Predict the structure.
Amino acid sequence: MVERRFVDDLEASAEQADQINRINEEEGVRWLYSFLSADKRKTYCLYEAPFADAIRRAAERAGLPADSIVEVTGVVLPDGSRARIPEEVAAD
């Protein structure tokens, strides 16, 4: 999971997303999805990657911040139960 903080409101385009996805592919990283904060200045992005440095390299190449990268291995569901994130989805 990557937390990104932006100075200005985030305005993403399909062209920008395509460029980011190409860079990610070259680094062995897959962007699964992102949550955008209400003020459009923070995102929380779930990735799958072989290791955190691959995410950092891809972010640097794409000109994106990567303020915090946290490995996630499971989820807590609203009923209190826990589930593991499948290996192919877990991000380092």
